Amino acid sequence: MAIIRVTEDGPYRVEGAVSIRNTEGNELRREGIWHLCRCGGSRNKPFCDATHGLKGWHGPETASHVPGDRRTYRAEGIELSDDRQVCAHFGQCTDRLPEVFRADREPFVDPAAATPARIAEVVRGCPSGALALPTDEHDAPSITPIVDGPYRVRGAVQVVSASGEPYPVRERQTLCRCGHSRNKPFCDGSHWYAGFRDPLPPEMDNTPSLYEWLGGIEALERLTAAFYDGILGEPDELLEPVFRGMHPDHPKHVAAWLAETFGGPADYTTRHGGYENMVQAHRNRTLTEEQRQRWVARLARTADEVLLPDDPDTRQAFLSYLEWGSRIAVFNSRPGAEVIAHAPVPKWSWGNTAPYVPQPWDDPQAAAKGRAAHAAGLL
To answer: What is the pLDDT of residues 52-89, one digit of tens each?
Structure first.
């Protein structure tokens, strides 16, 4: 049976034949064991990236393991049930069919106020399974994040608490992924009030990736070669012990990781073992905060030395990744750390900024001024 295990103050552990999808419904993974973000902070959504550990997130479960008071409503040609205890308060029923699903009076449901076919259509659209039909069809197990909302779980998927106690199985469920629900692990609509948001897609198709803007693989290989040469050539007392005896191709491997992370080709995944290999390389290394800070500072300085773009937006995006990635590395290097071993390589982009890109409708002179102003930090 497909199982979602809630881990204590950590992610959801998905086991079995479950289709894990992105917000567009495209399948990302199936089979095996995968960890999905529960704290809302992962930069590798929907997968966990250990951010919960970095920020000391606390997410105790509060949902009941006892089936709720499911009320049944009948009218000619229709029978449905409702369990307010598991409602995620999406409002799709009250919005689509307010004459049947009445938010302002009791009983909540008037099954005679619309045609059976229309009521059944709305009930089947209930993401949480609070509304249900006796004839609900069984979908194949799947987990799909709703944009800026919870995980939509379909099919006979057993959710098990961190204590090992199972929750009642429902054909449709919504699991919290913002980290704020007061009915954990289930969604209660708190994402609306917490302002939970998924990363926005690029606003313009011609906005270059961070990988392209930095200069591609050649620039990244130039960066990593100079960086490791500097550490080992004039030995750095903090970092040299970490990289002593490293494989000669290590700088190229790190460049491939950065390339894939910044939106370039997936060579690190296809040629060098992907996320799992990077995590394994840091296990039990006991990296220190002092070493992390030195690593970030030296790599930033090397970026200047090899003449990577230094406009404010590029440097902000680049340094924010170095800070985040190095903290994850330190976390994963702790002896006995609960490492999230399986996930795609994370994707890092511009965040709230992006470089100025001339548009087809730009006046050439104005575009040149815009680029200059952007590089000077004025835009």
So the answer is: 988 889 999 999 998 878 999 999 999 999 998 899 99
The reply to whether the predicted model has a pTM over 0.90 is no
Closest CA to 127 of 149, 156, 107, 158: 149
SS3 call for 150: coil
User: Which is nearest to 185 in space by CA: 169, 198, 174?
Assistant: 174
Range of the domain at 280: 210-375
The answer to whether residues 270 and 326 belong to one domain is yes
| Cα→Cα distances 212→320, 345, 350, Å | 17, 18, 12
Amino acid residing at 128: S
Q: What would the pLDDT profile of 8-46 be if each residue is shown by its tens digit?
A: 999 999 999 999 999 999 999 988 999 999 999 998 899
240-278 b/e with 16+ CB inside 10 Å = b? eebeeeeeeeebbbbbbbbbbbbbbeebbbeebebbeeb
Query: Is residue 286 classed exposed, middle or buried when 0-12, 13-18 and 19+ CB atoms within 10 A define those classes?
Result: exposed
Give the count of alpha carbons within 13 A of 94, CB side only. 10
**Domain-embedded: residue 205:** no
Is residue 363's pLDDT more than 70? Answer: no
Q: How confident is the model over 330-344, as a mean pLDDT?
A: 89
For 31, list phi and psi in degrees, rounded to 5. 70, 170
CATH number of residue 321's parent domain: 1.10.490.10
